[in-house]
Amino acid sequence: MNFSSKDNANPLVHESQTPRYREENQDDDIHDEIDAREIFDLIRDINDPEHPLTLEDLRVVNEKDIFVDDKASSVIVSFTPTIPHCSMATLIGLAIRVQLLRALPSRFKVEIKIAKGTHQSETAVNKQLADKERVAAALENNHLLGVVNQCLTVKN
Q: Is the dihedral of CA 138, 152, 88, 36 positive or negative?
């Protein structure tokens, strides 16, 4: 992978439309179901691998494209690459998956996929992101894991 050239040199940047959960609304002593808003808060600040912008800034992730069934321990996140031929789509999906696997209780089954009709290789990328063995192998690659960790590093 060549990370030096950009597929989308001038992406459209959006202003946040969704307020964050407030700290005073979070009480660890009260069991509350995990919902789409909480998942969105976990992934909105993931950095785009090509730009100094977050996935929220680029509208790659939206709360409306997150489906959670807490009782069934299921999370499905659909994301929208900024362009239909984005070469970073698999990396973005991997970063979302890693962030959620690190943050959520282990009981959750996490599915990450490209939103229908938003990428020319949607089927192939979705197949890669759903393949547990491929994901595990990717995370054993030190270079790739380093790139994923950079995407997950919160910038001040």
A: positive
DSSP type of residue 23 = G
120 closest CA partner among 82, 86, 78:
86
Structural domains of the chain, with CATH = 33-152 (3.30.300.130)
- Match 């491929």 to its residue by tokens: 134
> How confident is the model over 41-62, as pLDDT tens digits?
999 999 999 989 999 999 999 9
Is residue 120 packed enough to be buried (19+ CB in 10 Å), middle (13-18) or exposed (0-12)? middle
pTM exceeds 0.85: no
Name the burial class of residue 16, with classes exposed (0-12), middle (13-18) and buried (19+) by CB atoms within 10 angstroms of its CB: exposed
Please answer whether residues 47 and 53 qualify as being in contact, where contact means their C-beta atoms are separated by less than 8 angstroms. yes
Dihedrals phi, psi of 114, to nearest 5 degrees: -80, 140
**What is the pLDDT confidence band of residue 33, given thresholds at 50, 70 and 90?**
confident
- At residue 49, the pLDDT reads 92
CA 35 to mean position of chain CA atoms: 15
